[in-house]
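Pilot study result, target chain (192 residues):
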Amino acid sequence: MKRVALVAVPLVLAVSSARGGTIGFDPPIQVVDPSIDTQVVFDLTVESLVQMASFNAFDLVTGSDDLAVVRWELALPYDCFDCESRPVGFYPSDLKFGWFGLAQQIGEGTLLGVLTVDVTGLAPGEYTVVVDPIRDGGLSTVTLGVQSEPMSGAGKVVVIPEPATMTLLGLGGYLSLLRRRTLACENFRVKL
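Predicted structure:
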């Protein structure tokens, strides 16, 4: 009589969730010195659409946990239903903006608007401003008729120390290397 070994094989069901389109922040990374710059500007464009080829309306919530989102300026001709950008409270600092183009259909590559972010008084580091339909409860979408697609994207602000601090850090690093080299030479001479 033959023995048969039973092997347990896990069954994995992949659930396909339709991912939405992408909002591009241009430039994607802004490097700033807050002693010189007080605000940075991102152009927001439609980088990609997944479920739709075009749209004639959008709602976007741009927000940040660390940056002050100051202003949203529309770059499209419009029949506007929500033209005043306003805070909505999904982030410590955010703005919601809506647009409706009655006789228009626009698609990928379209410049939607310009987002201004305040960088005054920020410590050196990386900060992010995002469009995230999960965090904003599904508000960030593009729409054509009854079909809508969630949109997401992110821009990064890198705050660098002012030049005097950078010079001091560089000088300290150079002196540290010089000291190590001097000690290495002294140790070498002592052994001879």
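One observation from the pilot: The helical segments are 163-191. A full batch analysis is planned for the follow-on phase.
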